[in-house]
Each structure stands twice: as structure tokens, then as C-alpha cells.
């Protein structure tokens, strides 16, 4: 198989490496030339212009910022062979509805969201095993349902566990499991910094709990601003629910009471079981850092 990957950052680079490991011929393009230069060593072909290799690939993976997906879809539809499958891995899907409408047979679409990431960016941190054992959302898009054989092939390449998600639920789900957790995580970091004026030892006494909770909050703020802005309505609703809950807890704690719902949180986490017995302990928190 021939695959082209546009956007050789953490996610795109990891996908390219996974395809290469599977024995596929992998072409790559990144608007940042230094990223493309780095990828030459492991066997990803970056010395051919994208409008040349796109003419004979079976798949094109778009791992670009959200704003760049539409112009790349237009280029692919104009240059790629009939029957080519376009794969996008955006973290937010609703803004792409008009883009999806452009893709018509014989071209096909596969909308994925691998739930894996790191707090660091760039090809240098990419890993062919990044997605292994992780959930990968397979999004049902309008009248372009994913081909089961293609889904199975790509889940095998990535080593991921597929979960079908309707398009109209994807962004709401992400506001709960990824986007609001980022804000909460970042808030804890800011709170700790602000308290440092009278508790300067805090940086020396943090444990694994603090480090686990704040990992996602330490990731690239510019990227998160783009993601949260694209999903702003859902984030507003979810964050409002969170702040309401915290205010309730604050009222109880200030009154010397203990929020009774905390008795159920262990059971809630234990209920997070993924397919094939994969537990929440191996479940990633987010899919971030596409560049």
C-alpha cells in the first residue's frame, strides 16, 4: 500500500511510522521544512513534491491543524486518483461538516480520532507504538459511513481499539473527556504557582498524583486555544457544569461538610472498561499536539 501523510508532527509522524513499520510505502509532507528534513532518516519519503506522490497513493492522512484540512481536501480531490481514501484525524469534527460534503464517490472518507497524545509536540516525539492498545474513535459522517474493511485495516496498522461514534456526539463527548479536563488540569498548575509566594517548597514536594493530574495542563496553550475555540459551545456547557459542581462542593466544604458524591468516584472510575478488557488505567486522556 502507498500512503501519504500531510502534517509530520506528533500524530502524523506516529501514523507515518506505524505505516512504515507495517511495510507500506510512506510519503510525507510538512509545511515546516525542518520537520520534513527530520523524517528522511527512518524511510519516510519526503523528497518528492506532494502533488507528485498524491497521484498514486491509496490513502492520504491529514494530520494538520483544523484550519488547513479544507484546502488540503480540495487539493487531494483535484490531484489524487479516483478511489483514494482521505483520512482526517482532527480533534474536533463539527466544523468539518462542509468539508465532508465535498467528498463524493469514488473518493471515500475515514474520519478517525485516535485517543492518544503527549504533552510535547513535533516529529521528534512521534512513536509508531503511540496508538497501540488505545481507543480510536471511528466517526460516522453523514452519508459517508466508514468501510468496515478499511477500518479493520487501519486499526491493525495503528494497533488501536475502534469505537464507533456518531458525528453529532463526537464534540460533546470530547468536551467531557478531553477539553474540560485540560482546563481543570491547567487551573491546578496556575493555582500552585500563585500559592508559591508563601509556599515556595511546593515544587519540591509534588508527588505522582499532582504530576498525573497536571500532565495535560502543561501541553501547548496555543494548540488548545484552537481546539477549545473550535468546540466552544460544548466546552462552555461542560465547563459551566463543572464550575457549578465545584461551587456546590465548596459550599459544603466551607460549611464543614463532606460532599457525599465523593463516595462514588472510585466506582465511577472502575466502570470505565474498554473493549476486550482494557481498563481505564491504560486509557489515554486526550489527543493533542498535531504539529
Please give a structural write-up:
By secondary structure, the protein is α/β, with parallel strands linked by helices. The chain has two domains: 168 residues, Rossmann fold, CATH 3.40.50; 111 residues, 6-phosphogluconate dehydrogenase C-terminal like domain (6-phosphogluconate dehydrogenase C-terminal fold), CATH 1.10.3660. Helix content is 44%, strand content 13%. The protein has a seven-stranded mixed sheet with strand order 2-1-3-4-5-6-7, with helices on both faces. Strand 3, helix 4 and strand 4 form a beta-alpha-beta unit. Helix 7 packs across helix 11. It is globular and about 70 Å long. The chain starts with a strand and ends in a 21-residue tail after the last helix.
List the helices and strands and how they pair.
Blueprint: E1 2-6, H1 10-21, E2 25-29, H2 33-39, H3 50-53, E3 59-62, H4 69-79, E4 85-88, H5 97-100, E5 108-114, E6 135-140, H6 148-158, E7 161-166, H7 167-195, H8 202-205, H9 208-214, H10 221-230, H11 232-254, H12 265-270
Characterize this entry briefly.
The chain has 291 residues and is an alpha/beta fold. The chain contains 12 helices and 7 strands. It has helices spanning 10-21, 33-39, 50-53, 69-79, 97-100, 148-158, 167-195, 202-205, 208-214, 221-230, 232-254, 265-270; strands at residues 2-6, 25-29, 59-62, 85-88, 108-114, 135-140, 161-166.
How many helical stretches?
Answer: 12
Let me know the CATH homologous superfamily of the largest domain.
NAD(P)-binding Rossmann-like Domain
Instruction: Please tally the β strands and state the result.
Output: 7
SS-based class = alpha/beta
- Number of domains as seen in the coordinates: 2
Rg result: 21 Å
**What amount of the residues lies in strands?**
5-15%
The CATH first-level class of the largest domain comes to Alpha Beta
Strand order of the largest sheet: 2-1-3-4-5-6-7
Mean pLDDT: 89
Q: Which CATH-level-2 architecture of the largest domain?
A: 3-Layer(aba) Sandwich
Q: Uncertain spans, ≥5 residues at pLDDT below 50? A: 276-291
Shape: globular
CATH topology of the largest domain: Rossmann fold
Write down the secondary-structure element order: EHEHHEHEHEEHEHHHHHH
How much helicity do the residues have? Answer: 40-55%
Gap between N and C termini: 25 Å
Biggest beta sheet summary: 7 strands, mixed
